[in-house]
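Input record (one chain):
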Amino acid sequence: MTKHQQILTFIEDLAIGSKVSVRFIAKELDVSEGTAYRAIKEAEAKGFVRSIPKVGTIRIEGVKERQIEDLTLREVSQIAEGIVICGFEQLDRSPKKFIIAAMEVDSMGRYLEEETLCIVGNRRDAQILALEHNASLLITGGLEPDEEVVALARQNKLVIIQSPYDTFAVTSMINRALYDRLIQKELILVEDIMVKDVSYLKADLTVGDWRLLSQNTGHSRFPVVEEDMTLMGIVTAVDVAGADAQTTIKEVMNANPFIVGRDDPVTHISRIMVWEGWEVAVVAEQGKLIGIVSLQDVIEAYQQVQKQPQFGETVDNLVLSGFKYVDDAEHLTIEGEITNSMVNDFGSASCGVLVTVMNMAGYIGLRKKYRLDAITENFTLYQLQPIAVGTEIKVTAKLLLVAKKHCNIEVDVTVDHVVVAKGLMTARIGDKKLVREMAL
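The corresponding structure, as predicted from the sequence alone:
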């Protein structure tokens, strides 16, 4: 069970009338405030907590929200264009799981359980076994069950649906219906995960004040604001390193923090934070500070989103999803494992996948060091050795030449300090608008 699910279970088990707060949940379950806030917001959507003005968030009597993946038997019958033979009073119930009777009867028993929907053809023995385990039936192929099967279903108050389509078609139709539901699911936005109770510093305070606030809160990154909460910048431990205690925050702060809006999708800002090295994002509205989001909270939210099939991913992001940064003061280096999805028919790393990883490493290196965008004009792979699945590789991008309009980047792939692939990337530099126009 994930932390998010643990919090939801914890909230649901609270006594009716109990107060629920971000700090209370974070302390009780040892989670970040962002994670706690997100779970409380979902609990409110599910209907078992409510935010009351001047009172707070209260645990209330309610029912769990129906999961988007849950289909009622009535909906299944409509999706499969089926005829309901019996069990009309049970049609608003949702099956716990679906099973396809494509196995020997002796093997079916371990998968059958109460409130299961068994998708089966004209196998009478499988139909009887499913009903004996209190599982409803979706009979495919337009075949009618015999009288004994119908009588047993009525006796056990179970549903029988007859569909004119074959088993494969019915299964595909149900899967498609679930997918269509998922693509309508709401995106996770910055507002859903941001911490609103932000510790901040004013520009006229000193490095000594930063040290005191850091000691009291355990944090090292704070937004810098004016008296009216207008955002001015951000100050971190790196900014104050070596500075005198009397130095003002305005003198050492970074005046160009990563600023996001409350309506920005988490899937978008997560990529920027990960690939450009931002540890925190400041949330502002009309120039005023309203919250802050840490990289940890963003990654946790992004991992939840990645599990949802309605969010399309680019090939680049899918290939790079298992890679992470390596501390390297001189060059941009990432490392990751060659997985089963990255190999060719011979079980070694696909050439196309390696070129993708190497090319993206070069692009990330350029963005991280110079904040420049580029589009690849040429990539030459002039050394390549077979790399087996499961091998950990390091990819290092070395910026050889960065001119006004062009750059040359050498990219090495190493395994245990041995170079197994080497390439040269030539790219044209420009702003994002120019790069998009060139791509089109």
